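Please fill in the sequence for the structure shown.

STRUCTURE ENCODING:
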């Protein structure tokens, strides 16, 4: 009991970020599966704020070996928890060694901080950014950490060229799968040759996480979504429209060789099962990125021009004569003409319907 009282810290440390009341919050999954919310930053943004050190007993003093604040970006591999790999480390000295006789606040600023990677928590790895304040002591330092979330925005093409992949057995089965990747995966499945009895077909989005290098590489596969898109035997020339929305799933941008420690990739997996339960499959990598949200500025009342009441009213346009009818043409895309395909998810998942409607 005496030992615990002796080592009890004599001050509390609080970190307050500038503008945090107006800054957007983002969610990230913790190691135990909970979703935590932290303030959201982007690459190149300044991280600044105030550090408050409050003495617990009025009139007491706090001897220290120096006070510093750090901005750190690090990668932690769960199979090697003893080593944290820092890729960003900035330090600001707040106070030289001395004594604190009253509660004190310090301002700090990390100007235009480079944040090259996105925050990520996976099965075997975690990438995090945080602000750490350290009050040096002779016996045990006082440390306070505050996490933030970083999202990486990427330049993305306006149009995605269609991608084709084929699943087939020579002289028995041949299908062609064509799709676009946007906020929704839109595609069609064409049966070019059918000589085996197909029982059903399913499609899945798979996330592959790879950590480590060489023989110490660990791979983890996670099925993000799975749908049964066909039940029954198809015929030659038949086509099946496909639409899978991505907004409802916890996806991250594709990460390739992050600091030579880990990678996260996504694949589209197409599987056909025949009546003898033989499976024919094909995988195709899909690249995901994060795009900036469009911010709509409200229209102020000052920008609206008021029309004076004294202006004369404009005459109404003359009616259109019957000799010059106005032609209206309704344009329908190929996807509108297709009938909607009802899909039944596997593994007793709730039923979802993939509608064949045109994308905006």
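FILLED IN BY: designer on duty
SEQUENCE:
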């Amino acid at each position: 009991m005496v030992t615990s009282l002796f080592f009890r810290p004599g001050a509390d440390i609080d970190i307050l970020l500038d503008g945090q009341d107006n800054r957007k919050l983002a969610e990230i999954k913790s190691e135990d599966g909970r979703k935590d919310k932290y303030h959201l930053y982007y690459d190149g943004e300044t991280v600044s704020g105030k550090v408050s050190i409050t003495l617990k007993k009025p009139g007491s003093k706090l001897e220290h070996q120096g006070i510093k604040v750090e901005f750190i970006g690090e990668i932690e591999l769960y199979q090697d928890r003893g080593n944290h790999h820092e890729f960003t480390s900035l330090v600001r000295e707040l106070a030289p060694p001395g004594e604190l006789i009253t509660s004190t606040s310090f301002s700090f600023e990390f100007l235009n901080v480079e944040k090259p990677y996105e925050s990520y928590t996976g099965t075997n790895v975690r990438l995090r950014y945080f602000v750490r304040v350290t009050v040096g002591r002779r016996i045990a330092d006082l440390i306070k950490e505050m996490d933030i979330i970083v999202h990486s925005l990427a330049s993305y093409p306006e149009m995605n060229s269609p991608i084709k992949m084929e699943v087939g057995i020579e002289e028995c089965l041949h299908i062609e799968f064509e799709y676009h990747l946007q906020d929704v995966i839109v595609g069609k499945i064409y049966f070019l040759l059918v000589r085996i009895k197909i029982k059903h077909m399913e499609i899945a989005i798979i996330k592959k996480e790879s950590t480590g290098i060489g023989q110490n590489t660990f791979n983890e596969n996670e099925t993000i979504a799975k749908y049964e898109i066909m039940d029954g035997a198809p015929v030659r020339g038949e086509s099946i429209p496909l639409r899978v929305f991505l907004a409802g799933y916890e996806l991250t941008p594709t990460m390739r060789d992050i600091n030579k420690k880990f990678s996260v990739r996504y694949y589209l997996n197409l599987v056909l099962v025949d009546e003898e339960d033989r499976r024919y499959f094909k995988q195709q990598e899909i690249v995901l990125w994060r795009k900036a949200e469009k911010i709509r500025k409200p229209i102020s009342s000052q920008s609206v021009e008021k029309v004076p009441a004294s202006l004369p009213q404009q005459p109404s346009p003359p009616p259109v004569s019957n000799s010059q009818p106005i032609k209206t043409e309704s344009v329908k895309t190929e996807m509108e003409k297709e009938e909607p395909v009802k899909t039944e998810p596997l593994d007793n998942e709730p039923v979802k319907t993939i509608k064949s409607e045109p994308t905006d």
